Amino acid sequence: MCGITERVERMERTRTERPDEVGGAAAGGAGGQPARPGAMTNRAMATFSPADEEKRRGVRRMKLTATGLLLFVALVYALAEWAAHAGAGAWAGYVSAAAEAGMVGALADWFAVTALFRRPLGLPIPHTAIIPTKKDQLGVSLGEFVGENFLSEDVVRQRLRAVGIGSRLGAWLAVPEHADRVTAELSAALRGALTVLRDSDVQAVVGEAITRRAGVQEIAPGIGKMLEKVVADGGHRRAVDLVVARAHDWLVLHGDSVMDAVQGGAPGWTPRFVDRKVGERVYKELLRFVTEMRDMPAHPARGALDRFLTDFASDLQSDTDTRARVERLKSEVLGRGEVQDLIASAWTAVRSMIVSAAEDERSELRLRVRASLLSLGARMASDRKIQGKVDSWVEGAAVYVVTTYRREITSLITDTVAGWDAEHTTRKIEAHIGRDLQFIRINGTVVGSLAGLLIYTVSRMLGA
């Protein structure tokens, strides 16, 4: 018995190790050439981890056990038949029937188990070697099964609804440590995005967007409405006060310049003392006018300015010529290089400010984001309405993904299985489930023996 077991073990080891050599040669390509890219998956399937090797040894042990049990019942059958012919008594018939049925059950289950992975005894029996010959069809069936039973809209909605993502996410975000973690991750992502983006590209996009939007949007009516509201609210008066005050101060400091300018514009035939008197008179009147306008809120000039601004605001909204002039001025301003440089410098300043705020843990940006996350988490954890909205958003997004990309997801399964080498795939699957399948052979032997004994017993009782 031990000698038979050892020979069977050597046969099993030789048969299982030989495909490695064949697969290794095939994986390398003909003539030792590098394998094509599609062979990467085959090599991955051909690789056996230490855990896989341990499972293969377990399969071999169970095969030996099942084969040893078959040989044992065969020996029992032979001894029982010999005893029956030698006149040992009725018990020999019962033992012989049980052993015979056990052999039949063992052989039938051996055939069934072996037919999954290879052709029994190498014979081309139909519907055998199912896994290596039907590997691609099994991959397609597996992909369809996953698509129909795991990627359907109803299944996804029911599963996500049962999870309650809104309440769980809210409870998780309400923890300060988790809010800090999310804030840090968002800051890192923001810094990474701003670092990857090239300033020149962003500046070109922003400048083009601003120029295009400003070009198609007429600004005169908007400016007119804004100016009309400012004048109605008296918001322009502070600007007038500032201009008048600065003009008064300038006149006080530069009186000689004003008088020189007046004298320089006088005709050449007038006497100098007349020019000087006229210059002094103009300067004093100008200074008096500015002083009165500064000190008198109800000065007529202020009222005239209010009427002018009101009329100008109305023209900006309704006068065709005024609006056309503003549009021409807008186009000229936007076309100047200084404006584009201003847009570029503005983006650079904004980017630097955002990056600095994202890096500083105590910056106002990160503190506000953290506070917002904590507040959002607390509301999501307690407000069922918000939970329902979050759950609905997540369900909708998940359903959209699985319904739109179901074919791509299932094709990942079918294409992956199709890329596996049939022999190595068979050996790897057998290493994972072969040990349990050997129990079928053992159970078949035991159950067959009991069934044979029962049938023989009933037959004997009916025959008696």
Automatic annotation (TrEMBL):
<dbReference type="Pfam" id="PF04286">
    <property type="entry name" value="DUF445"/>
</dbReference>
<feature type="region of interest" description="Disordered">
    <location>
        <begin position="1"/>
        <end position="41"/>
    </location>
</feature>
<feature type="transmembrane region" description="Helical">
    <location>
        <begin position="64"/>
        <end position="85"/>
    </location>
</feature>
<dbReference type="GO" id="GO:0005886">
    <property type="term" value="C:plasma membrane"/>
</dbReference>
<keyword id="KW-1133">Transmembrane helix</keyword>
<dbReference type="InterPro" id="IPR007383">
    <property type="entry name" value="DUF445"/>
</dbReference>
<feature type="transmembrane region" description="Helical">
    <location>
        <begin position="91"/>
        <end position="117"/>
    </location>
</feature>
<keyword id="KW-0812">Transmembrane</keyword>
<protein>
    <submittedName>
        <fullName>Membrane protein</fullName>
    </submittedName>
</protein>
<feature type="compositionally biased region" description="Basic and acidic residues">
    <location>
        <begin position="1"/>
        <end position="21"/>
    </location>
</feature>
<feature type="transmembrane region" description="Helical">
    <location>
        <begin position="439"/>
        <end position="458"/>
    </location>
</feature>
<keyword id="KW-0472">Membrane</keyword>
